[in-house]
Write a structure and sequence with these properties.
- It is a single chain.
- With about 425 residues, the protein is mostly beta strands.
- The protein has a domain of about 200 residues.
- It has one helix and 36 strands.
- The strands form ten sheets. It has a six-stranded antiparallel β-sheet with strand order 3-7-6-5-4-16, with no helix packed on it. A four-stranded antiparallel β-sheet has the order 8-9-10-11, with no helix packed on it. Strands 17-18-19-20 form a four-stranded antiparallel β-sheet, with no helix packed on it.
- The longest helix is centred in the N-terminal third of the chain and has 4 residues.
- The chain is globular and about 60 Å long.
Length: about 425
């Protein structure tokens, strides 16, 4: 399920008589609201919470932070990679994305942005809440509902309940709005995992919509908008730039002072010479599909996935030459089954293929990558990955996995945190 549902309306205005109206009873999703007072008093850190619906991941220090879709963030101790351990759960209603810089975790909570001190990762402390920083979100729904009756003053929508409702409708269809919706889809030392001491940034996966760079947090807020937020002073976060980008923006990735924005129609390249105001450089266009992107050197690797929410009919892996940032060019394209997130490390490409598992390729053969399969891990669900110094972190519907790929001929699973199916 995607994080955002945005509505654009065209309203036809006509004069009608009583004969133009009638009563209709039908099944609909009726919103369940959480009041703003309840939302803003909901932060809590608890123990004993299990993973049920994991999403985005972010590595920092010796811990992994795993999103529990729209509920909060799990804190996982990786000091023993053979036995990752759930240490705490940060209750953050409406959370899907996050990013980390200088011991501060930035997490969305519906319309608010939270700043959480994780200098002690297992005892997080809420230090700041920026209210109404994000647009109001209407979650995807399965049945009809008179969207003009949604009352934002009641609070945020946390879900729906199916009810029969009766309302007056017009026989003439034009007085009612017509809606279109755009649904966006979540080093090792002595055997333990730690970040390099010079790294003060969290490392996210390829599906991330939040990312930090210098003193800025970049956030994809809608199908076309990116916000540049100054986080130099955590007590006074400032939105310095709102950039409009076409193509249904989906993911963010930074490499060599450039920001790469994956969209359903292509990949945008932005220059971060002025971090406060990223400068548009160019766009690489591709077929309509869901589109995470990662970069290494002069190559960008893009997975394109078809589906009801993504559009398109093809599932592909594309390699793009970005040596000239102003004229990115496709080098090669390969058929895939169901590609989601991906990662690249020193020419080794990791591709998540949903229920078809994880695949590892030698990407140095850029014109025949899929003919150079290094290893495959079927029978698991793979959503996104973070490769880091010969260790791979992977998240999927089944849970969290740690792989050792220091020897590419013998890639092995070190540890797991698996979800126990409910009976």
């Amino acid at each position: 399920m995607k994080r955002l549902l945005f509505l654009f309306s065209i309203v036809g205005i006509t004069l009608t008589s009583c004969e133009d109206r009638r009563l209709q009873t039908y099944v609909a999703n009726v919103p369940i609201y959480m009041s703003y007072d309840a939302l803003r008093s909901s932060f809590e850190v608890v123990t004993g919470a299990s993973m049920e619906k994991p999403g985005k991941i972010c590595f920092y220090g010796s811990h992994m932070f795993i999103n529990e879709y729209q509920k909060g963030i799990h804190v996982v101790d990786l000091s023993d990679p053979t036995d990752p351990e759930l240490k705490a759960f940060i209750e953050v209603p409406g959370n899907v994305d996050m990013a980390i810089r200088n011991d501060l975790l930035y997490a969305e909570s519906y319309v608010d942005l939270l700043v959480i001190d994780i200098s002690d990762p297992e005892q997080p402390v809420l230090t700041e809440r920026v209210e109404d920083l994000f647009e109001y979100v209407i979650p995807p729904y399965d049945y009809d509902y008179p969207l003009d009756e949604i009352d934002q003053k009641k609070g945020v929508i946390t879900g729906y309940e199916v009810k029969k409702i009766t309302r007056e409708i017009y026989n003439n269809p034009y007085p009612w709005p017509i809606y279109w919706d755009y649904r966006l889809e979540s080093s090792f030392d002595k055997g333990g995992i730690t970040s390099p001491t010079s790294n003060t940034y969290g490392v996210g996966g390829s599906m991330a919509r939040f990312i930090t760079y210098d003193d800025y947090l970049y956030v994809l807020e809608s199908s076309w908008k990116m916000k540049s937020i100054n986080i130099a002073n955590s007590d006074n976060l400032v939105v310095e730039k709102e950039l409009s980008l076409w193509g249904n923006v989906e993911t963010l990735f930074i490499a060599d002072d450039y920001l790469y924005v994956g969209t359903s129609n292509g990949m945008h390249i932005l220059d971060l010479a002025n971090p406060a105001s990223p400068n548009f450089v160019s766009t690489y266009q591709h077929i309509t599909a869901c589109d995470p992107v990662v970069v290494e050197g002069n190559r960008a690797y893009i997975t394109l996935r078809s589906g009801n929410n993504c559009g398109g009919t093809q599932n592909l892996l594309e390699v793009v030459d970005i040596s000239d940032k102003y004229e990115p060019k496709r080098l090669s394209s390969f058929s895939m089954t169901e590609p989601y997130g991906l990662g690249i490390d020193n020419g080794t490409l990791f591709v998540c293929e949903g229920e078809h598992g994880l695949k590892v390729y030698d990407a140095t053969y850029e014109n025949s990558i899929t003919s150079h399969l290094i290893s495959a891990f079927p029978g698991i669900h793979a959503y996104d990955v973070i490769p880091l110094e010969s260790f791979l972190f992977m998240i999927g519907e089944d849970g969290f996995y740690i792989y050792d790929y220091s020897d590419l001929n013998h890639i092995s699973i070190l540890g797991t945190l698996l979800i126990t199916p409910s009976e």
